[in-house]
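Help needed: design a sequence for this.
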């Protein structure tokens, strides 16, 4: 067949030229489309199992994107509204919270999301008024994207009243780790290191608000003083050996440097989130007046966070939580709870881990022994600061 095709093209040079032109055109279309997807969101297989290393957008493309975002944000600037940044606001808890706050008209929500088109459609479907939200690109798995976001937000001229660190990836069935372009395992990069860098870069912006807050979403699975926190594999950062290795240029798939476990990687990252909140409170609350808090809004069993779990789990988990444990919380109710912690003057206490019960409503919950370990919290901070090259990032932002 190959010989016949070759002979046909040889005997009919016009047809051969036509086929070559069409193939060339098709190839350029694929390249252009691939580049567009890559520059907007990164590779689509970022959550695929296997020892994958992810790419990141070029500095020129990122600068172009930042300029577009600044124009959009300035166009919607309203001095009468407070501003809240919510990471991961295109679905689940983040979207539900964005909707609740935007509906009041008192808040302008910056939806910080990796997938711009997805966020735009989600906001439209949620009935959010375009006057009350702005979508800004942020891929927390990329330290460069996180720095670009901070630069773009500051250049927009908006004040920042509240920062909500909500975005997370959960890869419970992954057999092999996925590594980002910066060399970090995807869960710890997105859930912890990206947020750690973002909070630190936006501290100066938060300081200027009248009643600033920084909320980092925690998880019951990261607290081993609970029944859910004792379901294997349990969260345990060990001696932070994996982060130590990362600081020396080595690659570790887990924070404790042990064998990779996707479910544990998520739980460990949530411990890091809660430790970071407590360390932020210790370092900056008295000096700046910023309220730092964490929360667990309840078991949102039907959330897209579980999209990478096995089908049987996704089928059985929601009714189990709804009818057996009675711990089920809808995305809408969870969003209302987080919006409460963002905006209610009664919940401005710093250093607190908020939870809810059906009987008493919101209350200050206790954290596990590991989360309350101040020495480990300080050590985690020091290692994270080094891994994200914080001093250099802060200096670059100041001179931008």
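Sure. Designed sequence:
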């Amino acid at each position: 067949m190959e010989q016949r095709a070759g002979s046909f093209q040889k005997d009919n040079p016009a047809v051969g030229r036509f086929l070559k032109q069409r193939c060339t055109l098709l190839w350029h279309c694929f390249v252009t489309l691939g580049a567009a997807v890559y520059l907007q969101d990164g590779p689509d297989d970022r959550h695929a199992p296997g020892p994958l290393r992810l790419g990141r957008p070029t500095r020129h493309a990122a600068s172009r994107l930042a300029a577009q975002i600044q124009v959009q944000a300035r166009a919607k600037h309203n001095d009468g509204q407070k501003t809240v940044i919510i990471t991961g606001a295109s679905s689940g808890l983040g979207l539900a919270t964005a909707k609740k706050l935007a509906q009041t008209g008192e808040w302008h929500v910056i939806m910080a999301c990796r997938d711009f088109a997805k966020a735009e459609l989600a906001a439209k479907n949620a009935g959010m008024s375009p006057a009350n939200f702005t979508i800004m690109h942020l891929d927390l798995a990329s330290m460069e994207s996180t720095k670009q976001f901070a630069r773009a937000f500051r250049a927009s001229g908006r004040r920042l009243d509240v920062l909500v660190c909500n975005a997370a990836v959960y890869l419970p069935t992954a057999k092999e780790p996925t590594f980002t372009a910066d060399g970090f395992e995807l869960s710890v990069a997105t859930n912890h290191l990206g947020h750690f860098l973002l909070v630190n870069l936006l501290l100066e912006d938060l300081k200027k608000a009248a009643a600033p807050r920084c909320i980092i979403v925690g998880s019951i699975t990261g607290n081993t003083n609970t029944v859910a926190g004792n379901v294997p594999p349990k969260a345990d950062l060990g001696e932070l050996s994996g982060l130590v290795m990362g600081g020396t240029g080595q690659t570790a798939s887990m924070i404790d440097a042990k064998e990779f476990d996707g479910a544990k990687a998520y739980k460990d990252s949530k411990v890091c989130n809660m430790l970071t909140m407590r360390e932020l409170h210790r370092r900056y609350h008295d000096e700046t007046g910023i309220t730092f808090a964490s929360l667990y809004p309840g078991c949102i069993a039907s959330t897209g966070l579980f999209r990478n779990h096995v089908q049987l789990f996704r089928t059985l988990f929601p009714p189990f939580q709804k009818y057996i444990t009675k711990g089920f919380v809808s995305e809408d109710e969870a969003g209302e709870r987080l919006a409460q912690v963002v905006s209610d003057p009664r919940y401005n206490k710093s250093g607190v881990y908020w939870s809810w019960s059906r009987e008493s409503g919101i209350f200050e919950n206790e954290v596990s022994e590991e989360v309350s370990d101040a020495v480990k919290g300080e050590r985690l901070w020091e290692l994270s600061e080094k891994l994200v090259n914080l001093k250099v990032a802060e200096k670059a932002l100041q001179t931008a």
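Confidence is low (pLDDT under 50) at residues 1-11, 13-60.
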